[in-house]
Amino acid sequence: MTPDDFPPTREAALARLAAVRPADYARSRNALEGAVTRLSPYLTHGVLTLPEAHAGIADRHRLDPQHKLVYEFGWREYFQHVWQQRGEAIFASLHPGPLPDAAYASALPQDIREGHTGVPAIDRAVAALYATGYLHNHARMWLASYVVHLRKVRWRAGADWLYGHLLDGDLASNHLSWQWVAGTGSHKPYLFNAANVAKYAPRDWHSTGTAIDCSYEALDRIARDPAAVAAEARGDARGEREPPLLDGPPAAHGYVAPDPAAVHGRDVWLVHPWSLGAAPADLPGDTLRVAVAIADWHRRWPWSARRWSFVAERQRALASLLWLAPAPALVAALAGARDVHAVDDPHLRQALGPAAEAIRWRPAPRLFAPVATTCASFSQWWRRTRLAG
């Protein structure tokens, strides 16, 4: 992985899709150097949709509905289902975990943020995150498990931090995955040890002789003991410098304040950060493409400069106007438009609040049939859904 592995273009997404080998994925997906798809930044930002990804693979390879890759696609839509059903509740513990919330610290320790815990699996993960904006799912789980169960930090503190630095940060997938690891969104805490790291990670990640070098039985006792906390790294050890998180794109990207006159009486297509694909073909011919970034939402959910660059470059390729504003100013500027169209997305709905009702929403493309009732687990949702189409 290099910092430039995710060009923000449709061509790069399709090239990545063409390289997917489902059999290799199923065989090696747990290994950090395995044949994972690395499609997630393109899926999160709508450069590529899940139905497109599935069809692009199924056109070249046999892809049974029970294939592990289809399951992984399912997890993404399941997490969206939970967010749709539970709303803001996903940002608090869905149910009690191994310990009461009060047993966990509210802030992420500095040695974790700087990647000098002394546990190579954790420190390498932090370094990779800051260098590339991406982490293999196994590394994300190790990182979350260490933060919550060995360092006794609230899962929400870790989830918010990780979200800000990920290119593919999706609030539902990220925060509900942390809850799954923490045991507040699953039946038991997810634990890992040095032997697990040695099995699936390169040698420089191996963590023999560290806090994670013990049995699963010992780790489970630690996870359930509020007094059992792995020591914070001390001394002059220097790790990574955490990149700043920004509540808007850097000025060099050229976003400006909304101009109501530019859209007055026009049909508008919103090129928002979670819909960076082509506009629908059935829009009126004179529809104006307007890219938006919502400043007050990003004060709550800031992004790294790397992620802003990914989104900004793609928005610039798709839209003639780039607007940055708080939601009220954006909504006021769009009020004079004839119609405002956008792909439905829970991030944008959260950002706009009640004003979202003024948007003419286009349904987001779904790979799986919707499930109307709340499902308490992925397995329950999987039994009730099916591949759409």
UniProtKB/TrEMBL annotation:
Write down how the cofactor binds this protein: Binds 1 FAD per subunit.
* Amino-acid positions noted as binding FAD in the UniProt annotation, renumbered to this chain: Y25, E72, F73, G74, W75, R76, E77, Y78, F79, D168, G169, D170
Q: Does the keyword Manganese apply?
A: no
- The Cryptochrome/DNA photolyase FAD-binding domain is annotated at 72-200
One example of the protein's molecular function in GO is: deoxyribodipyrimidine photo-lyase activity
Q: Which GO terms describe its biological process?
A: circadian regulation of gene expression; entrainment of circadian clock by photoperiod
Q: Which cofactor does it need?
A: FAD
Q: Which GO terms describe its cellular component?
A: cytoplasm
Q: What Pfam families does the record point to?
A: FAD_binding_7
UniProt key word Flavoprotein: yes
The record's annotation in SUPFAM superfamilies points to:
Cryptochrome/photolyase FAD-binding domain
Q: Which UniProt keywords apply?
A: Chromophore, FAD, Flavoprotein
Which InterPro entries does the UniProt entry name for this protein? Answer: Crypto/Photolyase_FAD-like_sf, Cryptochr/Photolyase_FAD-bd, Cryptochrome/DNA_photolyase_1
**Family from the record:** Belongs to the DNA photolyase family.
Q: What is this protein called?
A: Cryptochrome/DNA photolyase FAD-binding domain-containing protein
Q: Which organism is it from?
A: Dyella thiooxydans
What high-level taxonomic lineage is stated for the organism? Bacteria, Pseudomonadati, Pseudomonadota, Gammaproteobacteria, Lysobacterales
